């Protein structure tokens, strides 16, 4: 009998991936960590039975969460990553020589250790000398951080349930605003617009952020293994507009090879379907 990983992405909709074998199953203080080897998607990493990444399509999420802000402000030096224990976001950030410091705050050390052992394709740069790992709650970390410390904050979190819940609150976004410099950018994963269980959260999060940041826009990517395959990210800034301030020639001069992100796609990713635009306009 072939083995299948099945995830109920929303009520009545199941997404399945045929697996070769289960590599790891661990209970941490916060969540259940599973890693599988699959036929089509390579390694598959889940938390509490929800896909966090697969080896085959993780480049899409990590390209879009990192290169979009980095192409808008190519001078970014100090970065805070909240969550992101698989290391994929840090991997992309370390490709920029201009970045001097990356603080990564992951609540669950077991996620980092499991990724370092089984997911080297994302975790390999967590040992870069510019990276400081903090194993604590991101909500507490931002409360205790000094004003204007970071040029960029990336919230690479789980869904707004369990330990990730507080990362979708007004209090958390207020703290992010405070600890960003006057040129600061906040990127956060905004869930899927397609199924109401996710879009409700996305709308709530977006409404809170747009009341705090002068510039706040949403962009999208196609991620095959995430619910509905259609995923959103939030771009908020004290100064930079993600389209008007895009520095395409300067970013292209860096000659970073990316598999998903490019300057045309950057512009296109902010062009949202009508139903998503309408959703975001609702209070
Ligand atoms: N790309 C994934 C997705 O959207 O499905 C998310 C990556 S996953 C590795 C997110 C990480 O956020 C998890 O390892 C989880 O432990 C961490 N996390 C959740 N809540 C957190 C919190 N309050 N503070 C710090 N890290 C948190």
TrEMBL record:
Complex and partners: Homodimer or homotetramer.
Enzyme class (EC, first level): transferase
Protein name: Polyamine aminopropyltransferase
Gene3D superfamilies reported in the protein's UniProt record: Spermidine synthase, tetramerisation domain (2.30.140.10), Vaccinia Virus protein VP39 (3.40.50.150)
BP terms from Gene Ontology: spermidine biosynthetic process
Residues forming the catalytic site: 156 (proton acceptor)
Species, as recorded: Alkalibaculum sporogenes
NCBIfam families membership: PRK00811.1, speE
Pathway linked to the protein: Amine and polyamine biosynthesis; spermidine biosynthesis; spermidine from putrescine: step 1/1
Chain's gene name: speE
Known function: Catalyzes the irreversible transfer of a propylamine group from the amino donor S-adenosylmethioninamine (decarboxy-AdoMet) to putrescine (1,4-diaminobutane) to yield spermidine.
EC number: 2.5.1.16
Transmembrane segments: none
PANTHER family documented for this protein: SPERMIDINE SYNTHASE, SPERMIDINE/SPERMINE SYNTHASE
Domain PABS per the UniProt entry, residue ranges: 2-238
Keyword field: Polyamine biosynthesis, Spermidine biosynthesis, Transferase
